[in-house]
């Protein structure tokens, strides 16, 4: 009888230990699943991140302007939808941040021009204009001249652009020789550009 009781006690202990082991495994597995659920997802690729986006319409066309990338070098993408035409896509590398976009008709030829204003990073904030003219089947890129040597002497960026009365207006502060970047004291230059039929932005006036 004692042998039988000892045998039953041994079987019972083994069963209890087995249940405890299985329960421990289940709890550990549950903890592993929970741990997997709280792991953070992979960060979005900064190269593909949309950093600017705007939609404009003019002349029966729709313009979707966007940039991708978060650093100083980005990709400008322009998608143009025209009635009864395949969409047009333009991709162009740019340095800086798009500040604004506008649609106009500077040369009054009834073909809309899309202007994209970009400022570079850093303390200079140098301004650049990317311009495109569109018609039903074709498009062309606007060309802007370099600043004259005389204007370059006191130029350190901080450009501002706007369209007024079919003219592109560019203003920037005048830096004297001893001026720090933060504090120009020489006044301001204003350049007025007009657009010819060959898509050249020509200097019309300088103040």
From TrEMBL:
Domain of life (superkingdom): Bacteria
Matching InterPro entries: PliI_sf (IPR038643)
Protein name: Uncharacterized protein
Source organism: Pontibacter locisalis
